Amino acid sequence: MVRNFRPFGVLLAIPVIGYVALGLVASKQERDWHQALAQAVKDVQVDRLNIYDLHVACSDPSLAPKLDDVCSPFSNVATIRTVALWAGAASLLFPLLVMLAGAVCKANRNLLLRIFAPGLYISNIVVSVLVVVQAAVLMGTVYYGESALLGRIHYGYILLFGFAALAGAFYIVKATFGIVSKAKTIVVGHSLTINEHPHLWQFVKDLAKTTGAEAPHNLVVGLTPNFFVTEADVQCLDGELTGRTMYMSAPLCRILTSEQLSGVIAHELGHFRGADTKFSLKFYPIYRGAVDSLQAVAQAAAHSERGAIALIPAIYMLAFFLECFSGAENRISREREIAADAVAAEAAGEANIATALVKIVAFTGLWDHLTSVMHE
C-alpha cells in the first residue's frame, strides 16, 4: 500500500514545498511592507495601517505603478504559488486516472491495447509539461525563497534545474515520436524448410489442425531451451523471416517424447488460436517505447546529477504508468498461458504436458551453468 502511494508523494513534493515556501516568502513581504509603511507614516495608528496590506496596495491601479519595486516580486510570488497549486492538482489527479485505467484494462486485453497506446502518448506529453512546470516552480521557489529568507541567490542551481528539465522534456518528446517501431525478434537458429524437413512440418500442421489453430509460416530451431511463437519479424542465421514463426529448442526436443513434444507445440499453437501473437505484435513495440522513454529521462538525470531533482517526478510518473499497465498485461498473459495449457492438454493429454513442463523447467535451470562452462 505504501509503495502504491509513493509516486504521489514524489510528484507532489515540489508543488507542495514550493507552495509552502512561497507562502512564507509572501508573508515576509507583507511584514516588510508593514514595517516600511509604519516607518514612513509614523503619526498613523498601526491598526489603521492594516487596511493597506501589500496585496491591497498592489491591486490598486493608482498605487501599483508607483510601487513596482515591491509589487512586482509580490505578484510573481503569487503567480508561482498559483502555478504550484495547479501543478500539485495535476500531479495528484493524473496518477489516479492512470491507476484507474490500468485497473479497468485487467479484464480486457483489447481494451488494454486501445487505451495503452494513446494513454502512453498523453502520459508522455503530460509528464513533459509537468517536468517543465515543476522545474519553473522549483526555480521560482529557490530564487524568491533564497532572496527573501537568506538574502542570497544561487543562480547556478537555478540554471541547472532549468537545463535539466528542458533536457528531460526533450528526451521524453523524442522518445514519444519514435515510440512505435516494427517489432523484431533476433534468434540464434536455423530456419527449417518444408522440403528438407517434411516430417516435422507435417507433424506441426497435423497438430495445428487438431487444435484448430493456424499453422506457422516458419519453423526455426536453435539451442536456447525455449519454445515460442511470434508474428514479429524474426532475424535468424538464414536471414529475416516474416509471418507466423515457431521457435523450437533442439536440446528440449531431444529429451521429450513425441507425445510430450506434441503437448508443447500444441501449447504454442494455442497462442495462435487465441490471437495472442497478434496482440503481442501490436502491444509490445508500444510497451518497449514506454520503457525507452523512461530510460531516456533516467539518462538525462544521470548526466545532470544536481539537476536530477527536476527530473525525479518524470521518472516516477513514467515508472508508475508502466507498473499500472504491466499489472494488467501480466494478468492477461497468465490467463492466456492457462488457456494455451488447456489446448495442450486436449491435444496430448494432461500427463504428457505436465511431464514435459517438468523436464523443461529442470533442463532450463542448468542452461546458464552450461553456457558458462562452455564459455570458460
Short structural description:
The protein is an alpha/beta fold and 376 residues long. The protein has twelve helices and seven strands.
Strand and helix order: HHHHHHEEHEEEEEHHHHH
The number of strands is 7
Regions with little confidence, pLDDT below 50 for 5+ residues: none
Number of helices: 12
Q: Which whole number gives the mean pLDDT?
A: 79
The main β sheet shows up as: 4 strands, mixed
How much beta, percentage-wise? 5-15%
What is the approximate shape?
elongated
Assign the structural class, choosing from mainly alpha, mainly beta, alpha/beta, alpha+beta, or little secondary structure: alpha/beta
Helix content: over 70%
Strand order of the largest sheet: 2-3-7-4
Q: How far apart are the termini?
A: 46 Å
Rg, Å, rounded: 31 Å
Structural overview:
There is one protein chain. By secondary structure, the protein is an alpha/beta fold. Helices cover about 75% and strands about 5% of the residues. It has twelve helices and seven strands. The protein has a four-stranded mixed β-sheet. The chain has a three-stranded mixed β-sheet with strand order 1-5-6, with no helix packed on it. A hairpin with a 2-residue loop joins strand 5 and strand 6 (about 240).
